[in-house]
Write a structure and sequence with these properties.
Blueprint (H helix, E strand, L loop, with lengths): L1 E6 L5 E5 L4 H10 L7 E4 L5 H12 L3 E4 L5 E4 L7 E2 L1 H4 L9 H8 L1 E5 L12 H9 L3 E5 L2 E5 L9 E3 L5 H11 L5 E5 L5 H12 L3 E3 L5 E5 L7 E4 L4 H13 L3 E5 L7 H9 L3 E5 L2 E5 L10 E2 L11 H9 L4 E5 L9 H7 L3 E5 L2 E5 L4 E2 L2 E3 L3 H12 L1 E2 L1 E5 L2 H4 L5 H7 L3 E6 L1
Parallel strand pairs: 2-15, 3-14, 6-7, 10-11, 18-19, 22-24, 23-25
Antiparallel strand pairs: 1-25, 1-26, 3-5, 4-5, 7-9, 8-9, 11-13, 12-13, 15-17, 16-17, 19-21, 20-21
Helix pairs in contact: 1-2, 1-7, 4-6, 5-6, 6-7, 8-10, 8-12, 10-12
Bound molecules: uridine-diphosphate-N-acetylglucosamine (UD1).
Length: 421
Amino acid sequence: MDKLLIRGGGPLSGEIRVSGSKNAALPILAATLLSSEPIRVSNLPHLHDITTMIALLRSMGTELLVDEKLCVEINGATTKQTTAPYELVKTMRASILVLGPLLAHFGRARVSFPGGCAIGSRPVDQHLRGLEAMGAQIEVDEGYITATCPNGRLKGAHILFDMVTVGGTENVLMAACLAEGRTVLENAAREPEIIDLANCLIAMGAKISGHGSATITIDGVEKLGGCSYSVMPDRIEAGTYLVAAAATRGNIKLRDIDPNTLDAVLVKLEEAGAKIEHGEDWISLDMEGRRPKAVSFKTVPYPGFPTDMQAQFTAMNAVAEGVAKVSETIFENRLIQTHEMNRMGANISVDGNTALITGTERLKGAPVMASDLRASASLVIAGLVADGETLVDRIYHIDRGYECIEEKFLSLGADIRRVSS
Ligand code: UD1
């Protein structure tokens, strides 16, 4: 199993290009199942999760063509069977996103029930309730969700989500595109990835308005057609490198990123003492050699502070000046990485969903274990600000979400190497 060996050192400095967004690419790949014509998707990141989604489409017999730049042309109409098997769903929860498209296009779907994961129980009741409101019949047995459409086609409905759910909004939004009549989604997620998905669906011929707000209206159409779509840049990858540069008192310039998608993160980095500049598609950060100041925050749905950036900021707070209070309100078990950071000399106490982090000048290198994707990234940041060697184990989590992580950190001057045991 691969590990990352990091020798903590001086400030990161340099320029990198931000990859395509994993969390936008996954629903967009699932959405190709809705179309009756080929869809060409570009700017996909080279990541395990993307490979898993492609494998899932292939396992259903969907014809697809991949080129050397990972542009994928997918013909959803060629799908031969509508089951997403346990072997694939267990490795990637986002596989649930094929449920709505399969049901809306083919009238049936069988998707293995995604279990909980390291960061929490993660139910999918809102996905199922939304589809049921559109007339789907849903049964859960032998670990599978079986959804059918007794009337042949889903029917538009008024759906109020109990909580803001990104995946739930995506699944129901996709299904509504081929439903008969109007669907209104209330308390919908407003994440930029929802906007990207909606823009792709619109390019396929869907009639959607209000995406990016809490109320999305979809007027169902009978068929969706082909298009070419380039996936948006990854705001979480971008945020991770910005925080890494800030924690190491360095400077960085990111290319191919929309700064508007990172408002809450940039505000907190400025509060930490970073000098931030940005243009239409770039962001630069400079700590001018200063130690970051501790920043407190609470994770909330977009446009508030993202849960996917919590662990990285916790790593920065571990070496910041002062005391930070961080509350995680989205997932119940997402402060687990703090225990590994304490093994590196951090001073973090956790009470329920709140962490109190008292900054220390530097951490000490240690062997640590990654427990989920963003937690792994935070341990890499901790390794960069630690004296001596840090060996991050179980980095398959990182490979699910960070394209060319060693190459990108190396180009910023980090001492980082992948080792096989
Ligand atoms: C997506 C992102 C993930 C991010 C999360 C929150 C992808 C592939 N993943 O995950 O990186 O951390 O949004 O921004 O885009 N919930 C329910 N019932 C449901 C659905 C959700 O109770 O049916 C709860 C969840 O347990 C969680 C909260 O709602 O507490 C938010 O989850 P959700 O927004 O659905 O997260 P994901 O779509 O799984």
